[in-house]
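Table 4 source record.
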Amino acid sequence: MIIKIEFPFLPPSVNQCYATNWRTKRRFKSEVYESFIENCLPYMQGKIIKGEVEVEFNFYVPDKRRRDSSNLIKALEDTLVAYGVIEDDSLITRHVIEKIYDKGKPYTVIQIKRK
């Protein structure tokens, strides 16, 4: 079984996902991350895969600006778990990450395969 999910945007990097209340020293989800999670819902509804999985992340970026590809997957993994697409990100046994230069609008494609 393979699930394919396509988003018309890139995920936020880990650096963009959290903010800190310097008074209490507590971290919380940033507005950017909350918005990303909300925007993902329509693309993930009804997609569920149980057990160990292999995940392929394809990031279509519009320019050759420096981006840390591995820094982009954390928000996606957490969102997949939050919406129940996968049971837990600890069940991902293999990651494939590819960054593709595409002059069009940025987008993301995820393929999840049951192991």
